[in-house]
Amino acid sequence: MKVAVYGLQWGDEGKGKVVSYLSKDFDWIVRYSGGPNAGHTIVKEGIKLVHHHLPCIDHGGSNRGYLGPGMVVDLSTLIEELESLERIFPGISKRFYIDKYVSLILPWHKLEESALEKAENIGTTKRGIGPTYKDRTARFSITLYDIENDTAFEKLKAMKAIKSPLVNSFLDEAALLKDLETLYNRLLELGVKVTDFVSIKEDLEKSSILFEGSQGFLLDINCGTYPYVTSAQVASAGISSFFSWVKIDRYIGVAKAYTTRVGEGPFPTEIKGEIAQKLRERGGEYGATTGRPRRVGWLDLPALKYSVIFAPATEIVLTKADVLSGFEKIKVAISYNVKGKRVDTPRGFGDFFEAEPVYTDLAGWTDLNDPLFEEFVSLMEEFTGVKVSMVSTGPETSQMLIKEV
Ligand code: GDP
Ligand code: IMO
Ligand code: MG
Hints:
alpha/beta; Adenylosuccinate Synthetase, Chain A, domain 1; Adenylosuccinate Synthetase, subunit A, domain 2; Adenylosuccinate Synthetase, Chain A, domain 3; ten-stranded mixed sheet; four-stranded mixed sheet; 34% helix; binds guanosine-5'-diphosphate; binds 6-O-phosphoryl inosine monophosphate; binds magnesium ion
């Protein structure tokens, strides 16, 4: 079985939770895009873990995790992540594989990002993601392959010339190469296997694979609310860049019962004030990577419809509906008014900037057994044309309700 799990909103939908629930049934958990901008939370038997680079493998089990070649990786924070996991699960690093063709996030990428942010004001996670992908697209990035093959030094020297004056002030290419080699050796010491997408194909082919998406489709570089997006393809297009040979059996889209967004950019159903604060506090809506308070708002069905079509999703896992339990009234956007015209599905990302949401008011549910919650689920299903196959009922990995579809 080959399954894809990815977010359908602006990230933080609970992908970590959903992957950790499904994880034990898969041989491989594969991260295919993004990098440490992701913050995927797992709560298992009271222990809370946040993964940034590492796929959410079944910690107590024996399956393996693969950091695929479409990722951008910061070696020093990856090692910190592994070392902190090692303190709880000694030896776990040996179950991770990293592709030698990942692009490395280097010190100047963060500097470039700070400079860009002054002009663009995207509200990035400041992890150097955009500049690293930019260098990759410009055919100018450094990979683990370069460290292994002594091609890193020449490239670093060439970069120093190009990236001045930003970089010249601090970059000593020999010192940086030494740092990278030390980090690379530490990875090997921990037992992480360095592989590549061709060598690993045979093993993947005969195994069950769960592809773990990062970010959310509305942050996709091509289809998201550009320019307020991340720099990678976050859904099935991101998988197919290196894994086009995989036939995916299920495309599982993860969506919250409301909406959140971190950083700048359009957010038609955003709310502020007392209800927003209640939602933020009850939902613990603070960034898992940066700690920033997340912007919050009502469920946006037009946006969700856009995502299920283009991500795409063949089923939805609904998360965080428990956070709305006890709310007397709930709003759900069922269409947009764009310059006086009714729009049911955004016609590209431009509509998100102009959209005034048209809401329907629903009576809130007391708990997830309440028939009023069923009505909410039916509305989602009818509107999107996609069934809700599972309902997450809390942050714990085991808190999941399987629906008959
Ligand atoms: P991700 O980036 O999509 O993996 O999501 P995050 O981990 O950044 O944010 C989701 C937050 O909601 C985390 O704190 C999870 O522990 C929590 N969470 C996930 N699913 C549920 C749920 O169904 N109910 C509640 N109350 N919390 C949830
Ligand atoms: P997970 O995987 C929520 C947002 C940032 C910013 C924009 C660009 O946990 O859902 P970047 O650092 O990627 O260049 O920032 O994208 N962003 C996320 N928001 N969850 C994430 O990941 C995000 N990764 C990036 O806040 O608006
Ligand atoms: Mg997150």
